[in-house]
Amino acid sequence: MLMASLGRFDEIGLTAITTAVIMIVATSDRQSAWAEPLLRLGDTVVGIVIGIVCKWLASFAFYKLSGQEVESQA
Hints:
Elements: H1 2-5, H2 12-28, H3 35-66
């Protein structure tokens, strides 16, 4: 309902699957259930950092190969 109210209709299925995975893992190992959301947050942060680094490296390689000057975004 939250994703629909935000107008993110394409991400409703992804949100449902992620919620289901977290709930299944939490019920299978009750001792470390509190750690699961923290691990998912860590996974997300690591994924974002890797994506930013890869984008930066690809842009750097593109500008080096094409001979253009790197544009700075201030």
